[in-house]
Structure formats: C-alpha cells, structure tokens
Amino acid sequence: SAPPEPPHSGYVLFVAHMTTKIRHDRPNIPHNQPLVVKEISKIWQYAMSESDRDYYSQFSLEAQEEYKERHREFRATGGYRPSKRFKKLEGGRGPWVHVCESERNDLEREIIGYDTVLFPPRPKHMEKPQWEIEREEALRKKKGRE
C-alpha cells in the first residue's frame, strides 16, 4: 500500500497530539471532538508561543516533503522505504511523531509514553448526522423563545 499521508498543517498535527493527550487525561469523561477542537484552537491561538506553533508547522512541512519523495518512489516501484524521521504511532493509526527522540517536543515524548493512543469511539448519541443535530438545536432555540 501507499505511504501514509502526513498532516496537512502544523495545526492539524497539534490537534491530533492534543486530542490524544486530552482523551488520555480524561478517561472517564465522554469525548466530544467538536468541543475538544474548540478548546485546542484556543490553546493554539492564545496560549502557544510562536516558536511552538513554528515547531508544528515545520514538522508538517518536512513530513509533507518526505511524503512526496516516498510517494514518487511508491508510484515508480510499487513500494517505498519507511521514513527514518517520522512515524505514526499504533501501527500507523495514531498521531505522527518524530522517530528520533532528540527531535521530539515534550508533548510527543508524553504521548509516546502512553499505553495506547487509540481510544474507543464516541458515544452513539454523538454520532448523529449533522442535519439532525442542527434540527434539534433549532427546536431547542425555538422552545427557548416561547
């Protein structure tokens, strides 16, 4: 199979890392990804230093460049050499991290230490189609005005 695609941006990579951390740190709280992403976005926008954001952006750019090389190799030969710089945890199903420990940031080092980075799916009540969620929200608002 083809090489795995890297994160499309530093922000996407940061969301993956933080989602993993939050799910690990809050095992007994039902996971709500839209709310978690809002929380993570605020961290990215207001609480992170420019150098921390640059770290994730640079990680993403370098991983994308390497992916292009691996993908060209795959298209030419039907196979590719695994990356020596980046990997996905949990057999390719977890978040991206640096292979070399000295290149990892604190959050990557923390995530690598977890027993697992894969968590159970969201509760069924959170798996409704978006149109249904919007309809219910509109009904709640309408009830509130009455």
Counting helices, strands and paired strands, the structural category is mainly alpha
Write the H/E string, N to C. HHHEHEHH
Largest sheet: 2 strands, antiparallel
- What is the radius of gyration computed over CA atoms, rounded to a whole number of angstroms? 19 Å
Contiguous uncertain segments of 5+ residues: none
Distance between the termini: 57 Å
Question: Shape from CA axes?
Answer: globular
Mean pLDDT: 92
User: Domains counted in the coordinates: how many?
Assistant: 1
Give me the number of helical elements: 6
Helical percent range?
A: 55-70%
Strand coverage percent: under 5%
> Based on DSSP secondary structure assignment, what is the total number of beta strands?
2
Query: Spatial order of the strands in the main sheet?
Result: 1-2
Description of the structure:
There is one protein chain. This protein has 146 residues and is mainly alpha-helical. It has one domain (10-119). Helices cover 59% and strands 4% of the residues. It has helices at residues 10-25, 33-47, 50-77, 89-92, 106-112, 130-145, and strands at residues 86-88, 96-98. It has a two-stranded antiparallel sheet. It starts with 9 loop residues before the first helix and ends with a helix. The mean pLDDT is 92.
Q: How are the elements arranged and paired?
A:
Blueprint lengths: L9 H16 L7 H15 L2 H28 L8 E3 H4 L3 E3 L7 H7 L17 H16 L1
Helix pairs in contact: 1-2, 1-3, 1-5
